[in-house]
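Quick sanity check, Succinate dehydrogenase cytochrome b subunit:
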Amino acid sequence: MAGLTSSTIGRKYAMALSAIFLLIFLVMHLSVNLLSVFGADAYNNASQFMGYNPLIQFVMQPVLIFAVVFHFVMGFVLEIKNQKARPVKYEANNPSHNSTWMSRNMIISGAVVLAFIFLHMYDFWFHEMNYKYLDGLPIEESRFWGDLHAKFADAWRVILYIISFILLGLHLGHGFQSSFQSIGARHPKYTPVIMALGKWYSILIPAGFIFIAIYHFVTQ
C-alpha cells in the first residue's frame, strides 16, 4: 500500500480502485433499501441478515469503512498536492471551457458528501452499534423497517438527504468516468460506453435513494 501511494500516479490508481469498490457498494446498498418500499418483511429479513452475518459485520464492514476513509483522505491529499504543484494559475487558462465545474470542484462536493456520510452513520450505523454491542439488546427482526421509517418523519431531514444525494450525483457524474480512466480503461470503442454508464449511474443511484426518503416521509 505504501508503494502504491508513494507517487501521484499510484495515489490516483489507488483512489480509483477505492472509488470503484464504493460504486459497487452503492448499488448493493440501494438494492437493500429499496426493499423497504415493497414491504416491511422483506426489508427486515434482509437487514437482519446483513446486521448479524459475521462475514458482513467483521470482514466486509471494516473493509467498507477503510475504503470510505481511504478514498476521501486520498482525494484531499491529491487536491493539496495539485494546488502545491501549480500555486499560480495560468493567465490564459479558461477553466469553464477546458473542464466542467464539477471536475474543478470535486473536493467541494466530496467534502459535502463526507459530511453527509457522518450524518448517515449517526442516524443508522451508530444507532445499530449501540443497540447490538453497548446496550446488548436481543435480536428483534421487526425493528429495522420501523427505524428506517421513523428517520424520515421530519421534513428537514428529508430535504437534507435530498440535497446531499443531488451533490452525490454530481460527484458521481465525474468520478465514475474518472475512476475508470485512472486505471487505464480508455479506448475509442469503450470510453463512450463508460461515459454513458456513468451518466445513468449518477442519475439513477441518487434518484433511488431520494425516492426512498420521500416515500417514507409521505407514508408516515
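Posting the structure with no commentary besides this: The chain has one domain: 8-84+105-219.
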